Amino acid sequence: DQQVKQNSPSLSVQEGRISILNCDYTNSMFDYFLWYKKYPAEGPTFLISISSIKDKNEDGRFTVFLNKSAKHLSLHIVPSQPGDSAVYFCAAFEGGGTSYGKLTFGQGTILTVHP
Amino acid sequence: NAGVTQTPKFRILKIGQSMTLQCTQDMNHNYMYWYRQDPGMGLKLIYYSVGAGITDKGEVPNGYNVSRSTTEDFPLRLELAAPSQTSVYFCASSPPRGGQYFGPGTRLTVT
Asked: For A72-84, how does the pLDDT look when each residue is reduced to its tens digit (9 = 90+)?
């Protein structure tokens, strides 16, 4: 049972344009969401997060939107740069008093930004 | 400040051999994790630890063991390697409910 799904295995965009990466989840107990970026032969690195009490969080070129009713979140990168080419994972924490940082990851989306 | 370090980077094992993947973090995080990533898949949690002396199973623990004798170290043990354990293994650490910091990974092939 895949509780966090990234239905697009890959995305290709032109430099300077917007990249939109999508993520859907099924577990209504998830209350904190994160995006990670992964380059080949490296571990994932934390990019941006959002709590379920918010619907938007911005950090420079990166914005994450959360639609709780649709159980959907998206990561917007504006403007996209060739250095953004990587695999992007969304991940979710389950709340309900759980204190440890157990994350559930999506399958990842490969973003390619063309010069 | 090295963050999370993993050794070895690569390893080839024969079926039935055993090995230990090492993981060390220098951020004084209580929480540590082992994940595996198979091609085209997300990361799946193998084991995690919320502090020294405390470990628990994740989503895919079969075939693995862990120990946590210190805050810094969280080794992952494969006792009888099987081809299904061919994967990339990532160790991570975090503060409570914070973003996880990942090591560079260990690429393991079992033939």
From this structure: 999 999 999 999 9
